[in-house]
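Table S2 (continued). Query chain:
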Amino acid sequence: MPIYEFKCRKCGNVFERLCFAGDDENDITCPTCQGKEVEKLLSSFSSVSSGSGLGQALSSSSCSSSGGFS
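Corresponding output:
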């Protein structure tokens, strides 16, 4: 049950929604304006590296400017 980010094309509101396996993305409405024209956004994520001590989070900032990982 992942949480996805959506952006309303009508008002520009960005919101999150918990999506279940059987959910239809066409039924998602903006909580601000009730618009049905929403787009799923690509979200960044973080992970925990086992060797970095006390769970230091690694984020998308570890990518190089050329788009690869450093």
